[in-house]
Amino acid sequence: MREIDKRTRVSRRTVLRGGAAAVPAAALASGGFVAAAISADAAWAQDASHLTPHTMASLVRMARDIYPHDHLADIYYVNAIKPYDAQAGGDAALRTMLEEGIARLDADSQNRHGVTYIGLAWEEQRVGVLRANEDTPFFKKVRSDLIVTLYNQKAVWPKFGYEGASADKGGYIHRGFNDIDWLSSV
Amino acid sequence: MANKFDQNDDSVVVIVGSGAGGGTLGNELAQKGVKVVILEAGKRHEIPDFINDEWASFAQLAWKDMRTTSGTWRVHKDFPNLPAWIVKSVGGSTVHWAGASLRFQPHEFKAKTTYGTLAGASLLDWPITLEEMEPYYAKAEYKMGTTGTNNIPRLPGNNNYKVLEAGARKIGYKEVHTGNMSINSQPRDGRGACQQIGFCFQGCKSGGKWSTLYTEIPKGEATGNLEVRPACMALHIEHDASGKVTGVVYADANGQHQRQKARIVAVAGNSIESPRLLLNSASSKYPDGMANSSGQVGRNYLRHMTGSVYAVFERPVHMYRGTTMAGIVRDEARLDTSRGFVGGYELETLSLGLPFMAAFLNPGAWGRPFTSALDDYANMAGLWIVGEDMPRETNRVTLDPVAKDQYGLPVASVHFDDHDNDVAMRNHAYKQGAAIYDAVGAVRTFPTPPYPSTHNMGTNRMSENPRDGVVNKYGQTHDIKNLFVSDGSQFTTGAACNPTLTIVSLAIRQADNMTAMMKRGEI
């Protein structure tokens, strides 16, 4: 059957500019271990105009912890969170909700583990902090927004094996609508 | 070419809504020489405008005006302002529907007699029988080009169907096929054959699927007897001192209030807006709303017992390729109370694209149990459950005491609680759906909760006795002889099948009876 090429299609240049970052110096300085390049030092966090770099980085970390897909690079989570910065510029209540929401995650994390939320090395620990906050309006908003801002990125669709629009390609009548080939073997 | 009728022309029939009921009734009347004005709240989006993109299409077509909800149904928690996923556009929900066109079984017109009295249910027999409906079902199937009827071949099965069929046969189901679908399996009636595009819910870009948008409505317009006014939201129905209706006040595209006079008004705005319009038409003569002397307007809201089962396999399925509702298992639609419930259910394939799967698989869920399911999206198959739900007086559409829409009118508030029978049936269906997929090697199955309602029925139900319902066997309101209801809100009970074929059949029948009444000078 015709299968989907799930390899990343964004250019290396895009990844370097948007997703990756220098060594997360702040995290290293504080003695924490950070597995990925999600850090307040990242260019996309430093570029934020209305939210602090720490809040941006924490929101991206939160996005990854809420909807973890190991086959998705950070760039897609950054893309999902980035619009909050501009929205916060025109919406003081949103800005407060996001800044205070992250501050509360950090406070919870400090109480439990002695480090900020983003400084927690294990996903299990970070998820524990999120679970304790999942009924807050802040968490609910971020989670429900992510359903659209993460999964409605056309660039992520092929990574899940979803092909998107088909009418412009003549539908699937000649492109595998009935090409399943393994049923007889089960 | 479409004519335009004068707003003071009181010889026209005004129909509110252009979907399966209103669009069909409009064309049927126009063909008989009756002048018709259809008021449609939505804009006119034609086939080239449709978008193969779930969220973008939702923004284009869905009814997103404010509504509120209450009750123990999970939709209230997950989608508190979206009780229904239906369409605000010319063609109504026939733009969005999957195409499944099933006739009721004989006993499903006699639910009260057949099922007896159930505590907490307001069961009633329809005032019509299958025998009376059969000629109209036949006309509807011919009109819509339903596969498996009129020597029209069934559609070829897609991957999602093949998984369903293989599993269903392994566990012993017999009545398994690609359905009775009003989707062209070969060119017919000036429309092409299905191209297996998928995106049936987003408007069919090949026109292979029947919709009033590009069948009934242009045919009616071609007679010169039908005018469709898009972006015209009916606000209330007016009446004279005798109580007869005289016209409809509506807001046009600019928000200006207009009045279209009428000889007859037919309400076909789907089962949430139709009772809302009647309730919003309250007057000193009709203080509880129009046609509501029984107090039944808005009650007995039906949405079908639904749910989905998705399953993940070791190898790819690509369920989204091809027709969304690509096949059916009918064995459980039978009447058999030994299963622990009355009524029955169908299992029909269903697929969602990745964006809607993320939104609907388990609303509110997060973390790896959820994302690991989506990681296997390409290896998923899925089915939807359509079962008969029990009518309940307390499941109802009312006017929200607080929330108002953009016209300043109270919005519809939808209350729903599952009946115990619905819960028992859903649990049975979840088990059977999972068994089908387990039989062909599913590694994981998901009993997925009901989506916002696509099948909305029952809120102006048909009854023999005016005390028990809102309309008679012709869809004519018991209270006002020139006021009709022409959509699924007429349904006395919901049966175990997708409602559109029955709505279309009732509209064809209503057109016959309405013109006969007009000729006899009764209305």
TrEMBL record, chain B:
* Gene3D superfamilies attached to this UniProt entry: FAD/NAD(P)-binding domain (3.50.50.60)
* Highest taxon listed in the record's lineage: Bacteria
Q: Where is the Glucose-methanol-choline oxidoreductase C-terminal domain?
A: 391-507
Q: Which residues form the Glucose-methanol-choline oxidoreductase N-terminal domain?
A: 88-305
Do you know which SUPFAM superfamilies this protein is assigned to?
FAD-linked reductases, C-terminal domain (SSF54373), FAD/NAD(P)-binding domain (SSF51905)
Q: Which GO terms describe its molecular function?
A: flavin adenine dinucleotide binding; oxidoreductase activity, acting on CH-OH group of donors
Q: Which InterPro entries match?
A: FAD/NAD-bd_sf, GMC_OxRdtase_N, GMC_OxRtase_C
Q: Which family does it belong to?
A: Belongs to the GMC oxidoreductase family.
Kindly provide the name given to this protein in its UniProt entry: Oxidoreductase
What is the native source organism of this protein?
Acidisphaera rubrifaciens HS-AP3
